[in-house]
Amino acid sequence: MKTTTFRLIRGFATAMTLFFALAVGSAAAGTLDEVKERGVVRIGIANEAPYGYMDLDGKVTGEAPEVARAVFNAMGIDKVEAVVVEFGSLIPGLKAGRFDVIAAGMYITPERCGQVLFSEPSYKIGEGFLVPAGNPRNLHGYEDVKANPDIKLGVVAGAVEGGYARDVGIPDEQVVMLPDNATGMGAVKSGRVDAYGGTALTVARLAANDPTVETAQPFEDLVIDGKLIAGHGAFGFRKGDEDFRDAFNEHLAGYLGTDAWEQTVTPFGFGRHTLPEKSAAELCGG
Predict the structure, then answer these.
(1) pTM higher than the cut 0.85
(2) What total number of domains does the chain contain?
(3) What molecular function does GO assign, one term (predicted)?
(4) Domain that includes residue 154, residue range
């Protein structure tokens, strides 16, 4: 009886050892090996043109998804699948494993660097306002909003524009948090907000085909603490996926600035004039 019990215990222990060995081996393999094995990488986007969005034909496109496709193909990962979430859900979704990489043109900020690993940036861009046609409130920058307590500024929840507004000194009660660009466009048209803050490319694209709105021109350069603000967008990876991020960076460096890259990103308003000027390390350091 004792012998049988001992054998059962020893068999159970062996099975558990094998289980944990497999589990540790799987964890050690990491996301990079997993996506290579399945041949599919899942990207998170926020349906924000021109950064990462789904077009009228249902194709996921934009600067970030198209650059991601080229880089992942060079890494031997042939298929890219997208998960669409609100911008504020991108980092939580990445952490929860809903997707493997954020490919939404997300700006690198020190606060976000505390939560995710960023690739090297793939672009830089300035800021702008979307306003009603004729710009009736005569808004040309964040300081104009700060100077008039009656002005309401719309921004996407979780995006950097909310932080810019706080840094400039705009009271929270003047800032309206919105889920996405489409809602921001509607808020301007309905009068819910007097201006919608976004990147220069975002607001230009929103204004392109609607005569009832326009971009605020001229737009004053945003300067905070004596520094000219130009956002640098990059791809986000989970903490612990350094090997995945590093492999991506290696292939990204060989792609940015090439003729193939330029042909890919030009339709979205990007080009050599939007090539990044800072590294991820510089931007994460503030």
Answers:
(1) no
(2) 2
(3) ectoine binding
(4) 127-228
